[in-house]
Specification:
The protein contains 4 helices and 10 strands; from the N terminus they run ββαααββββββββα. The chain is α+β, with helices and mostly antiparallel strands. Strands 1, 6, 7, 8, 9 and 10 form a 6-stranded mixed sheet that branches. The chain has a 4-stranded antiparallel sheet with strand order 2-5-4-3, with no helix packed on it.
């Protein structure tokens, strides 16, 4: 029996808090200026998080106006500044998710979280995807408890697609150690869109 050696993948670690704020600010600025995503459009992710944060941001604007009317005039500017930062933070989070979709090309599949770390998988190791209904606690790239050889990569704990790998892909998850991944669970707005993107871009050895 031949044992398949794992190929190497890459893990982008979670930025610092200051780094996350910079990503949010840069993403919000790019959305306002209508700049296209870099390196280009791809399958979106984290729709649930985007919708929840947008609703909270709108609700916060309404609540801020109501609360401001009840505050003493002397403290209203400070309250307004804090509320503005809170709302801009929420909009920056949503902008970061929109501007950092998953990416597929001939050599790699990049699974993004926008600001919590990413996974890069060799395209040649990606065999298929399948819809799943899965919850894995945590955020960003992380191992899946109770399932050796499985990794999750998402902003939210809810996952809806399994990416199947052959050969396994070696991923260094930092404090969690290396994992020879055969399955990666991700969040995708449209599982069909990810599957179609993978079919459209075959690795060179399959041609």
């Amino acid at each position: 029996m031949t044992v398949t050696e794992p190929t190497a993948g890459a893990v982008t670690p979670r930025p610092t808090r200051a780094g996350i704020l910079r990503i949010w600010a840069a993403s919000l600025t790019a959305v306002v200026l209508r700049r296209p995503p870099v390196p280009g459009p791809g399958p979106g992710h984290s729709a649930g998080t985007r919708q929840v944060v947008l609703v909270l941001a709108v609700t916060e604007v309404v609540a801020a106006f109501l609360l401001s009317s009840m505050l003493p005039p002397a403290v209203r500017p400070v309250h307004a500044a804090l509320e503005l930062l809170l709302v801009l933070g929420g909009l920056g989070l949503v902008a970061a998710l929109v501007r950092h979709p998953h990416q597929v090309d001939e050599t790699r599949l990049v699974l993004r979280t926008a600001f919590l770390g990413d996974l890069t998988l060799p395209r040649s190791a990606v065999r298929s995807t399948s819809p799943v209904v899965r919850t894995v606690a945590g955020r960003g790239p992380r191992p899946v408890p109770g399932e050796p050889g499985a990794v999750a990569c998402s902003v939210e704990s809810a996952l809806n697609v399994a990416v199947h790998l052959d050969p396994p892909v070696l991923l260094d998850l930092g404090p969690h150690g290396p994992v020879a991944a055969v399955t990666v669970y991700v969040s995708v707005d449209s599982p069909t869109a990810l599957a179609q993107a993978l079919r459209r871009v075959d690795p060179p050895h399959k041609r």
